[in-house]
Design a protein that fits this description.
heterodimer, A: six-stranded mixed beta sheet, 12 strands, B: seven-stranded mixed beta sheet
């Protein structure tokens, strides 16, 4: 079956530091990959996505590249801000699973001044 | 666009009572909606998939008689927690998939249920 593995948090960074949150996946076929962000007390917001190998998703300074050869979709940002503090979820969906999303366990990011 | 709302955002109910949570797609039609449950500091657990006009498909281990799901229109799905108990206290999140669109899901803001 499908599965997503994320690095465990929490990740604590100083403002303007470089961020990497690792995500690897297991899936059959050609899944679409997503990063969602959840701010405290809120639901999930789609941050970025990639639907095929070598695609790069980007939004709000965050980037992730769909690497089929390493089955990875690592999230990166060059300079984090305090407002980026949230929980980040890596997820995938596979056309063979009625578009069900499989989530990783989430990684909490705390950015300090 | 692609906004999903949930109501209420927070609800407190007494043990043994039932509570209904609404999920609405505000600016698009959603043939499929999903209900998730999230425990503190954990990931989302898919409870059921709801298709407009048909019965919901529940994930293994989810009691369909306890968590009643109705998807009567292309913009509204409801989750009713029947005979709630304290262990049902959780954060419930819905999502909706755009009709005719990609497999992308849009999430509601969640409903915090506390059963006393």
């Amino acid at each position: 079956g499908n599965s997503v593995t994320q690095m465990e948090g929490p990740v604590t960074l100083s403002e303007e530091a470089f961020l990497t949150i690792n995500c690897t996946y297991t899936a059959t076929g050609y899944p679409s990959l997503f990063w969602y962000v959840q701010y405290p007390g809120e639901g999930l917001q789609l941050l970025l996505k990639a639907t095929k190998a070598d695609d790069k998703g980007s939004n709000k300074g965050f980037e992730a590249t769909y690497r089929k050869e390493t089955t990875s979709f690592h999230l990166e940002k060059g300079s984090v801000q305090v407002s980026d503090s949230a929980v980040y979820f890596c997820a995938l969906t596979n056309t063979g699973t009625a578009s069900k999303l499989t989530f990783g366990t989430g990684t909490r990011l705390q950015v300090t001044l | 666009g692609a906004v999903v709302s949930q109501h209420p955002s927070r609800v407190i109910c007494k043990s043994g009572t039932s509570v209904k949570i609404e999920c609405r797609s505000l600016d698009f039609q959603a043939t499929t909606m999903f209900w998730y449950r999230q425990f503190p500091k954990q990931s989302l657990m898919l409870m059921a998939t709801s298709n407009e006009g048909s019965k919901a498909t529940y994930e293994q281990g989810v009691e369909k008689d306890k968590f009643l799901i109705n998807h009567a229109s292309l913009t509204l799905s409801t989750l009713t927690v029947t005979s709630a108990h304290p262990e049902d206290s959780s954060f419930y999140i819905c999502s909706a998939r755009v009709w005719g669109g990609s497999y992308e899901q849009y999430f509601g803001p969640g409903t915090r249920l506390t059963v006393t």
